[in-house]
Every structure is written in structure tokens, then in C-alpha cells.
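User: Quick one: structure for sequence A, then sequence B.

Assistant: Sequence A:
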Amino acid sequence: MKTTTFYYAKQLARENKRIKVPPSKKLDELDFGSLVKVSVFMEKFWVKIIKVENDNVTGIIDCALRNHFWHGLKFGDTVKFRLSNIYQIY
């Protein structure tokens, strides 16, 4: 499992007015198989959730990443992050 620092969704929304943070109710409904978007080192990408436990989320990166040389993440990697890092739900 890869570890890195994910951006907080509310911070992204403050920096970019087009980003709308999902409401808490929607975040609470996330479960296995949900597709969410997160951001790390200025790269935004989709993650398919495999586990939600309290505020902690485990998922698998579900798209190709362009800046993998900066953060070391790639398609198929398992990552952990928090609900507060999610800024979009598919």
C-alpha cells in the first residue's frame, strides 16, 4: 500500500470555485465499489473504494496518472485517505 499526502477537499474548493465538496450525507453513504476523486501533488484522479471504516478510506487507483514520478502512485495501487480528501463522487 502506498502512502502520500492527499489534499483536503475544502482547501481545493477554496482555491478553485468550480470544485464543490460533497455533502457529509453523501460521504457517509460511500461503500465498496464507490468511485471518488481525490488529489495529490496537483494531480486529481479516481479511486475505487474497497473499504470505509469511520473516516478512513482504502481504495484502488482507477485511472492512469501523468505525474507518477512526483508522488510514486500509479494505476492499480492501493491507497489510504480520509473522507475529508474526497472532492467528487461519481
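Sequence B:
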Amino acid sequence: MKGEHRSALGLLEQMEHQYQASYARWNILLLRGNIHYKIGEYEKALYCYDRVIQLSPKIYIGYYNKGAALYMLGRYKEALKEFKKALCLRQDSDVKQAIELTLRKLTAR
């Protein structure tokens, strides 16, 4: 399964260099980040999500996914900040749930 993910990452990296339009690039970067996240490469996912946010700062999913990667790295305060940014851009039940889970982690410490 990881081999398939690596192949997909390679193709997406090639595509990113071909497409200069920001819409196509942020979508490709989002997919790359999601694959890195899925295979547990959270630092690499963070890098991709940061680039998504740079290209499209008004799209909530970049902040939400960045928050999820930070959460998986145990960086709960940073994750909470990103989830709150996502919630400001879109009132979403998944984002609200992520905030609740993160707050529980922070108060359990």
C-alpha cells in the first residue's frame, strides 16, 4: 500500500510543476498532504498544508488539515489555533469536533 502512495506522490509532484494556476496547485498540494498524512508523514503533510494556505488563505481545508497534522504530532496548542482559523472560514461540524477533542487533550495535561 505504501508503494502505491509513493507512486501517487511522485505523480502529484510532477503535476504540481506543470500547473501554475493557483487553483490547480493548491488542489495538488492538498492531495499530496493528504497522502503524507495517511501514511503517517505528518511533518511532510504540514509542509504541503502550509503551501496550500499560502496559495489559498481563504479556504478552510488547509487550516483544518494542518490542525489535524499538528494534532497527530502532539502539538495541541498549535492545532487548536489552526482549527479555530478553519472555523472562522467555515462553520463545519468536523472542525467543531476537532476543536472539542483538542481542548480535551489540552485540559487533560
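The mean pLDDT is 90. The chain has six helices and no strands.

User: Thanks, that's what I needed.
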